[in-house]
């Protein structure tokens, strides 16, 4: 009879897409965060808010969890239950849609999809559920309990279903297909969110600026751009962020972790999205088209930068000096010239920098890495700018001209020195 109980247990714990956060698309990067990550303790309340929002987004009434620990459970012998499971007999039909079940209490639980009855309530946040098993898994959001562990990578999860969904990323199983474009997904919830890109549906709107989103969690994170709230703190440098995913991305600038490798050339990246963009340098794929001039780009951000050339639009302005920028990220970097903030620290010597790219260049002084190769003589350089200066020696190109006398130079600093001869300056 134990196998009957196991089958019932499996029905109870089949938490299809419940409380699972879908993977980010390239366009969503930085908006959504995975609430399965272990984040610092002070963020616990914010995580609960985001996950409660996300879980309500993704809860699917068609994928009901059957709970045998239910007040509806009938006084039925294990033998009777077992017979119906093996014979496939389903004598109990839903009064609303006609769907059939092998036990009456499964049918009663299913009918809650139609009636909206949710008798199980969370004492912490008040959220209600149709099934006790839903509530038990939900409570782990508040307690932080993650009893299910992935044997492949060690990541922990709140429910067996979350673990099952996660395992698909290791096996690359994508059972859910969009019937519009054929794209496949690891999760049904991710597929449903994707389908909104075809319908254009964005049901969650910001009451302040009117911007709309496909997910509640995305709206919640957007609201922080208005409030200025940045609850996620980097314990290394003290910089704060609006969401957990941006914090985790930032942390990799300190650890220099690069878990994503290109199978073609072996180059490694901190983020899967960067690897995806890099692969296009091998394939030549440029999926983003400028509707004005027809030029194509490998990524959406490059297209947006380019479009600003046509429109001249610079919507992001510095409140201190008034300078405007085409991108918010450029404004953020510019603000550091006023604040003196240097969030990027060298783990070797402790020197700090305002830009991650400058830190990356600095690190080459310690490692001796010289990734830029002269194709003419084979000389290598730590910086791209140094390679360009060197290449001018071979080509004889002198792009920097003196407006006074017309003399040309291969380097801008040489031109600057020359200009002093006209104004009487001495170096």
TrEMBL record:
Record family assignment: Belongs to the krueppel C2H2-type zinc-finger protein family.
Domain C2H2-type: 92-119, 120-147, 148-175, 176-203, 204-231, 232-259, 260-287, 288-315, 316-343, 344-371, 372-399, 400-427
Species of origin: Stegastes partitus
UniProt-listed Pfam families: zf-C2H2, zf-C2H2_6
Protein name, UniProt field: Zinc finger protein 2-like
The keyword Zinc appears for this protein: yes
Primary localization class, coarse: nucleus
Coiled coil stretches, renumbered: none
């Amino acid at each position: 009879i134990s196998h009957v109980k196991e089958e019932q247990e499996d029905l109870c714990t089949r938490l299809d897409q419940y409380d699972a956060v879908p993977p980010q698309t390239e366009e969503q990067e930085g908006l959504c965060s995975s609430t399965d990550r272990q984040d610092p303790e002070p963020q616990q309340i914010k995580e609960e808010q985001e996950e409660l929002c996300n879980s309500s987004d993704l809860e699917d009434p068609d994928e009901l969890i059957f709970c045998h620990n239910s007040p509806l459970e009938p006084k039925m012998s294990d033998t009777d239950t077992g017979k119906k499971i093996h014979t496939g007999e389903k004598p109990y039909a839903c009064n609303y849609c006609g769907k059939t079940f092998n036990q009456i209490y499964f049918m009663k639980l299913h009918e809650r999809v139609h009636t909206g009855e949710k008798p199980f309530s969370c004492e912490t946040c008040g959220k209600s559920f149709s099934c006790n098993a839903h509530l038990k898994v939900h409570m782990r959001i508040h307690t932080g309990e993650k009893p299910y562990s992935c044997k492949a990578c060690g990541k922990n999860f709140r429910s067996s279903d979350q673990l099952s969904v996660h395992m698909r990323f290791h096996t690359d199983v994508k059972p859910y297909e969009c019937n519009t474009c054929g794209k496949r997904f690891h999760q049904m919830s991710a597929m449903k969110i994707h389908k909104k890109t075809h319908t254009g549906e964005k049901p969650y709107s910001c009451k302040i600026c009117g911007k709309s989103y496909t997910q509640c969690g995305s709206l919640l994170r957007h609201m922080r751009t208005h409030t200025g709230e940045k609850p996620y703190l980097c314990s290394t440098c003290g910089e704060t962020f609006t969401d957990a995913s941006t914090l985790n991305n930032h942390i990799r600038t300190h650890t220099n972790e690069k878990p994503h490798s290109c199978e073609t050339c072996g180059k490694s990246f901190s983020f899967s999205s960067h690897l995806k963009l890099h692969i296009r340098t091998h394939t030549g794929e440029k999926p983003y088209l400028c509707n004005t001039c027809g030029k194509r780009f490998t990524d959406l951000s490059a297209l947006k930068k380019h479009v600003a050339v046509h429109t001249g639009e610079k919507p992001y302005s510095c409140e201190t000096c008034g300078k405007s920028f085409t991108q918010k990220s450029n404004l953020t970097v510019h603000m550091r010239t006023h604040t003196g903030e240097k969030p990027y620290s060298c783990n070797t010597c402790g020197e700090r920098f305002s830009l991650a790219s400058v830190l990356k260049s600095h690190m080459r002084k310690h490692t001796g890495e010289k990734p830029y190769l002269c194709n003419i003589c084979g000389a290598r350089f730590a910086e791209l700018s140094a390679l360009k200066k060197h290449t001018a020696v071979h080509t004889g190109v002198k792009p920097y001209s003196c407006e006074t006398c017309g003399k040309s130079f291969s380097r801008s600093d040489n031109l600057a020195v020359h200009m002093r001869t006209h104004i009487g300056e001495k170096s």
